[in-house]
Amino acid sequence: MAMKKLIALLCFICINLCSVQGAFGKDIPPLCAAAMNGNTQAIQTLLDNGADIHARDKEDWTALMHAARNGNTQAIQTLLDNRADIHARDKNGWTALMYAAGNGNTQAIQTLLDNRADIHARNKDGLTALMYAAGNGHSQAIQTLLDNRADIHSRDKDGLTALMVASALQPKEIVEILLRNGANPNIVSHDGVTTALQLAYKSPHKDVVALLKKYGAKK
C-alpha cells in the first residue's frame, strides 16, 4: 500500500511540477506543489514520508501560504493538522492569512481564523489582511474579516487605513462595506494631508466621492 501511494505521489509531482515551474519559472518543494494544487492525499503522503512542513520555495513561501493563496481549504486544514506554522511570514512579512485575503479566498480566511491566525498581523509595510482584501476589492473577504473583529482603523506605515486604500482603488460597493461597518472617513494619514476623500477625487470611481460625503467626509 505504501509503495502504491508513493508511485501515485510521484506521478502527481511529475504532472503538476510542470505547471508550477511554468508559473514560477523555478522549482518549488514537492509539498508546496501539492498545497498549491490542493492535493491533500499527496500532502499527507509527503509528510508521512518525512517532508519538511516548514520548507519554503525560492520566493520564501511555505506550503501553507501556497494553499491559502489558491483557496485550497482542505489543504490548509491538512497542513495545520500536521502542525504547519500558521504565523510564518515570507521575506516581505506576508502571512498565509494575507495571501488568502489578497486573493479573496473567503473559506480559506475563515479556516485560518478558526485555527487562530493573527488577524491583526502586519507585513513590512504595515499592511493587514483587511487592507489587502479592501485594496483588491474582495467584498466577501472584507466582511468575513470584519465579522471576525479585524481592526477597521488599522494603519500602514504611511498612516493609510483600509478605507483609504479602497477609496483610491475600488468602486463604490467596496467602499460602502467599510463605511457601513463604521470606518471613519475623516482619518488623516501620517503626512497630515491625505484622507479617503482626497484619494477618491483621484480615483476613476467618481461616485465614491459622493458616498464618502454622505457618510460625513469633510476634507
Overall structural class, as computed from helix and strand content, comes to mainly alpha
How many strand segments?
0
Biggest pleated sheet: none
Residue stretches low in confidence (pLDDT < 50, at least 5 long) are 1-25
How many alpha or pi helices? Answer: 13
User: What percent strand?
Assistant: under 5%
Query: What oligomeric state do these chains adopt?
Result: single chain
H-E order: HHHHHHHHHHHHH
- The first-to-last residue Cα distance is 68 Å
Helical content band: 40-55%
Folded structure, characterized:
This protein is mainly alpha-helical. Helix content is 54%, strand content 0%. Helix 4 runs antiparallel to helix 5. It is elongated and about 60 Å long. The N terminus is likely disordered.
